[in-house]
Amino acid sequence: MVCRIPEKGVKYLLAWGFVFLLTIIIHTTDSLSYALRLGGLRARRIGLALTVAGMLLLVSRTSNMAQGPLLGGMVDRAKAAAQVGGTDIRLELYMHGVLLAATVGTMLAILLYPTVVRMSARWIVHLEHTGSIPALVRHLMLRSRWKHAGYYIKRPTWSMLTSLISGAIPKRLIILNIAVTAIYTTGVVSALYASFLWPAQGTAMSMSSGLINGVATVLLTLLIDPRLAVLSEKTLRGELPLTRMNSMYGWMIISRLAGTLLAQLLLVPLAIWLGWVMS
């Protein structure tokens, strides 16, 4: 006997699968911005590195634009099922699945990190020669430019991890980055889940993610970014060894992974907190 999945269920799973893929892309590109910054330090062109990082952020923001309506549609279908007397206890499971995609995306970024650090230094030099992002893209699309791409491919090794552990550990930055990542990762998802739990205030709940993300923005702007900028400038002036920033950005991406895991624990509590604030 063949078990057939209802057509609505298939559409729901497809929508969730697309959201899962988009979330992976968002967190992979966001996490790899650390690799581009480190590549800029190695090439001693930090300003150009930020420009190249902007390309990745453009991919991330575009994926975010597509992800939002799909997530909202999932919540609307769950609300409709609840209104007709059905239950959709799977919505919380789907939301946890979206947060799992954030972890998968960050893990993928960690695997690509050594390769992107190597390649980004070359991209930044090419950007300086070509003068613009479109010209850089055309330059990179030439087949001849990828003949020796294998030279830049490098996988993470245990020696990289042991060097991180044996060196100085920026405990304060690690804790702050874990908190900021966890809040950013679950902010929108918790707001949408709160709109499902309190359908009467659904619109207000879904628009209240700024209450959560605002805390992360303050921490990032006041405590994390300035510290990384100061250390980067000291490295460019030769006051700090480059190995210090190698370790720093390594810990930043690892703490980002830990933040996506912490987001799983914050999903429901933050949704309940939003419900309490907005009710």
Structural features, described:
It is a single chain. With 279 residues, this protein is an all-alpha fold. Helix content is 83%, strand content 0%. The protein contains nine helices and no strands. It has helices spanning 7-43, 46-83, 90-130, 133-141, 158-166, 171-197, 202-206, 209-236, 242-278.
Give a short synopsis of this structure:
With 279 residues, this protein is an all-alpha fold.
Descriptive terms for the model:
279 residues, single chain, 0% strand, mainly alpha
Q: In total, how many beta strands? A: 0
Helix and strand element order: HHHHHHHHH
Described by the principal axes of the CA atoms, the overall outline is globular
Which structural category fits the helices and strands? mainly alpha
Helix content range: over 70%
- Largest sheet properties: none
End-to-end distance: 49 Å
Low-confidence stretches: none
Beta fraction of the residues? under 5%
- Rounded mean pLDDT is 84
What is Rg? 21 Å
Note the total helix count. Answer: 9
